[in-house]
Write a structure and sequence with these properties.
- With about 700 residues, the protein is of the alpha/beta class.
- The chain folds into 3 domains: about 70-355, no CATH class; about 365-455; about 475-675, Nucleotide cyclase, GGDEF domain (Alpha-Beta Plaits).
- Strands 1, 2, 3, 4, 6, 7, 16 and 17 form an 8-stranded mixed β-sheet that branches. Strands 20, 21, 22, 23, 24, 25, 26 and 27 form an 8-stranded mixed β-sheet that branches. It has a 3-stranded mixed β-sheet with strand order 5-10-11.
- Helix 3 (about 30-55) packs antiparallel against helix 14, helix 9 (about 235-240) crosses helix 11 and helix 14 runs antiparallel to helix 15 (about 460-465).
- The longest helix is centred in the middle third of the chain and has 36 residues, at about 420-455.
């Protein structure tokens, strides 16, 4: 029993030395389903942690790639309602550098009005009083309608106040949290750049952009609070001015369902228009239409009278700069250099079409449900066959993020819903990767367990070949030179017949454990256990292997009888004994049999001779017998010939040798006894 504990402890220590700690090992102690569910939970937590740590970079990636919903199938229809009048490089080259004189701006305004424009929207801030302001004001007042730009400054170290902010909205509260919109906080500032007081009666709207980390503009605040008053963005001011109403009242209300935006802006004088806003009061810019969809006329052509005035007739005209040197250039999904006036046109067109993209309130829940669907699919893959797991999970790690992106792209392209995709994509990537690692670790652990179990029945090298190769019906064997040792418990069958099976099993187990330890200590290995005997192998011939086998036999004979064999056997039974035979020679070692039932075999004359030599130990009353081949290698041992014998089943006689018994004082006294009289020892047992 103590030997068994030592053996198990050695195995445990070997495992600790050979393996480093793997965080997946604790999961293998759980049931497969529990382990996989825990991995999915870890993936979800990991995805949230990554989203939190790298939020800025991942949001930029989500925005850039998510815009594919517009870029893959853009709207190329020409926008007939809005025309751009651009102050481009050619205009600056012919008219002169910016800023132009107010007389020139008045002439340009009159040209736009004479061409039949319904509304002029100037993406220009006339902040400083200058000569010609009266002419410009008169031109604006003579047009059918005009809106100017003003700029609240959101990011400023100090207070900047130039010009006069006018035309605030009525009904939009600038309190940090109003009762009507408790979750909405409008941008607040005290700095601004606005047209000077001469243009106070001309409607205005702000053109303050929101610049993302990568320099792109994807959102704009619909309302900005300046000194406690709420001012609308330029396209909203244009809509209000187009109604010819002095009522600039609006209503802000939260979305009512999971599919509504966080906030909805409604204009009292423009029924039916609902502007979706996020929780910060921003509206998303739509890039569904290509830049070529917006018609543009160079300002210099209008001033020279060479422009096609039909392009301006009965349209809304956006006047702004497109020249690169004027600083109003921003990157968009279509181009790295897009004029800001185009963004105003995009927002105005999406408001007219009521197709402003937005993120619904229930987007987190929808993404969570998509993640759960991915988790269910990954769980199904993980529970499939090993081949499906090996190929399915890597494919899922690639395809599921693409599915998440595809869902987002489809929603953006068809309904203008900006759902997002990075969260389920990241979760599916982590979950598929961790599940693949877990399943590979599980397969590896199972294969290691199978190999461990096989190596307890077969030699380790053959167990490894079986564990890591496909079944085969072919003969898999090799010829080698070996030294063999066969050991047998004599009279064990009779002992087992008279004793309980449990006692016989315990004795046989102890014999195998002790004998195995002795043989392995001398460099051999157990080939097989056969009933109450064993066959051990040394993978070599020659003096060294013969010497190790001989020493192992001597140690077994000296240790096992005292520890294992009963000194007083049950009545009517002959005492147990241990017989050992040793021989050297060639052998064939490998596996044979059909693929569904293989057997590990050691074949050849050497095997048969060794087994027969071991059987002769009973006939010759010798505990250890050696064949002539191995005896020739043991020149330093005192061996005695036992004669030549025709072994059972063989046709060639073989000379057998036995170790010469050592004659000592103790052995002599055991023979002669006291006073020179023969000493006899009575053994209990035997037959009557």
């Amino acid at each position: 029993m103590s030997e068994s504990r030592t053996y198990q402890g050695n195995q445990s220590n070997q495992g600790k030395k050979g393996n480093f700690f793997n965080p997946l090992n604790p999961l293998l102690r759980l049931s497969p389903l529990a382990g996989r569910l825990l991995v999915l939970a870890i993936a979800a937590i990991g995805a949230l942690a990554v989203l939190s740590l790298f939020r800025s970079s991942l949001e930029t990636l989500e925005e850039r790639v998510g815009a594919l919903g517009w870029l893959l199938a853009p709207d190329t229809a020409i926008e007939q309602r809005i025309t751009l009048v651009t102050i481009d490089e050619r205009s600056l080259a012919e008219v002169g550098p910016w800023p132009w004189s107010r007389e020139t701006m008045a002439e340009l305004t009159e040209a736009i009005a004479n061409a039949g424009a319904q509304l002029q929207i100037h993406d220009v801030v006339y902040s400083e009083p200058r000569q010609g302001d009266q002419a410009l004001l008169a031109a604006l007042q003579s047009s059918s309608g005009a809106v100017l730009a003003q700029v609240p400054v959101l990011a400023s170290d100090g207070t900047v106040q130039a010009g006069q902010m006018t035309h605030p909205l009525i009904g939009a509260s600038c309190n940090i949290a109003s009762s009507a919109t408790p979750n909405l906080t409008l941008p607040q500032t005290n700095s601004y750049l606005a047209p000077h007081a001469l243009f106070a009666n001309t409607p205005k709207g702000h053109i303050t952009p929101l610049i993302d980390n990568d320099g792109a503009i994807r959102k704009a605040p619909a309302i900005i609070c300046v000194s406690g008053a709420a001012y609308p963005i330029l396209p909203i001011s244009a809509l209000l001015q187009a109604t010819q109403s002095s009522d600039w009242s609006v209503t802000l209300s939260p979305g009512e369902s999971l599919f509504d935006p966080a906030q909805i802006l409604r204009l009292d004088s423009y029924p039916g228009l609902e502007v979706p806003l996020d929780a910060e009061g921003n509206l998303r810019i739509s890039y569904r239409s290509t830049p070529d969809s917006y018609r543009a006329i160079s300002a210099v052509d209008l001033l020279n009278g060479t422009a096609d005035s039909a392009m301006l007739d009965n349209t809304w005209v956006l006047l702004g700069a497109t020249a690169f040197g004027m600083g109003d250039i921003v990157p968009t999904p279509y181009s790295g250099a897009t004029p800001g006036v185009e963004l105003q046109a995009r927002m105005l067109a999406s408001m007219l079409d009521t197709t402003i993209p937005f993120t619904p309130v229930g987007a987190p829940l929808m993404l969570a449900l998509l993640g759960l669907a991915f988790a269910a699919g990954l769980l199904g893959l993980a529970t499939a066959s090993d081949r499906t797991v090996a190929y399915g999970l890597p494919v899922a790690a690639i395809t599921l993020p693409l599915v998440a992106l595809g869902v987002h792209v489809q929603l953006v392209a068809t309904s203008g819903i900006w759902l997002g995709w990075i969260a389920p994509a990241l979760f599916s990537l982590l979950a598929a990767g961790l599940l693949l690692l877990l399943e590979q670790r599980r397969v590896r652990a199972e294969r290691t367990r199978v190999y461990g179990n096989l190596s307890s029945y077969l030699p380790s090298s053959f167990a490894r070949d079986i564990a890591f190769s496909l079944p085969s019906s072919a003969i898999s064997a090799r010829r080698c030179e070996v030294t063999l040792l066969s050991a047998d418990l004599r009279n064990f069958s009779a002992f087992g017949e008279s004793r309980p099976a449990e006692e016989s099993a315990a004795m046989l187990h102890y014999f195998f454990v002790r004998a195995t330890a002795i043989i392995e200590r001398h460099g051999g290995r157990i080939q097989e256990f056969i009933g109450d005997s064993l066959l051990a192998v040394w993978d070599a011939q020659g003096p060294a292997a013969a010497q190790q086998a001989y020493l192992a036999a001597q140690e077994m004979q000296s240790a096992l009888p005292d520890e294992l064999l009963a000194k007083k056997v049950p009545f009517g039974l002959e005492p147990l004994a241990l017989g050992i035979g040793i021989e050297q020679g060639p052998a064939l070692i490998g596996s044979i049999g059909p693929a569904q039932r293989r057997t590990h075999a050691l074949l050849g004359d050497t095997v048969a001779i060794t087994l027969r030599i071991q059987e002769m130990t009973a006939d010759l009353a010798q505990p250890v017998l050696l064949g002539e081949c191995v005896a020739r290698q043991l020149t330093d041992q005192q061996l005695e010939s036992q004669g030549s014998y025709l072994l059972k089943g063989l046709r060639t006689p073989h000379t057998l040798f036995a170790p010469r018994p050592a004659v000592s004082e103790r052995s002599a006294s055991a023979v002669t006894g006291r006073n020179g009289q023969p000493a006899l020892q009575v053994l209990s047992g035997g037959r009557k």
